[in-house]
Amino acid sequence: MTVNRLFDNTTNLLAKVMALRARKAEVISSNIANIDTPGYKARQVTFMDQLQDALVESDRLPLVKTHKVHLPVSRTITEIESSIQAQESSLAGFDRNTVDLDHEMAALAENSLNYNAAVQMLHKKLNILKNAIVEGGK
Question: How far is Cα 81 from Cα 63, in angstroms, rounded to an integer?
């Protein structure tokens, strides 16, 4: 049994979500750090659409790629990448900076809650695995 087969799809999904949430926290922190930088355009990380698409695709019957030159038939959760885009905002000040501190703090709080929820779920999954290993040997 390889190590990759030791963990189920939920564990891999939680690990990916945690990595994407960490990237989002970096971008929000960067926005807050540049709140006084003239001309700075606030950025945002998007990945939820890709994540939803990958989850829907995982529920369908799997397609098989029979030749190496064929286009990829589906996207796995591990292939999801975040994209960074400029935030749409009409609140640019006289210095053309578009960072809204209230918006960034709310986004940071929401992202932290979601990150912590993923950490707790992963912790519970790993405890179940640990109990199976410890109790299975008795």
Answer: 21
pTM score > 0.85 for this model?
Answer: no
> What pLDDT digit, counting tens, does each position of 65-91 carry?
777 777 665 566 777 788 888 887 767
Cα–Cα distance for residue pair 94/88, rounded to 1 Å: 17
Q: What contacts 24+ positions apart, CB below 8 Å, involve 15-18? A: 15/122, 16/51, 16/77, 16/78, 16/80, 17/51, 17/114, 17/118, 18/115, 18/118, 18/119, 18/122
Contacts of 88 (CB under 8 A, 6+ apart): none
Burial 98-132 (b: 16+ CB within 10 A, else e): bbbeebbeebbeebeeebeebeebbeeeeeeeeee
Distances (CA, A) of 70 to 67, 74, 79, 84, 87: 6, 11, 17, 29, 36
User: pLDDT tens-digit profile of 6-32?
Assistant: 677 788 889 889 999 999 999 999 999
* Strand (E) or helix (H) holding 25: helix 9-33
DSSP type of residue 7:
S
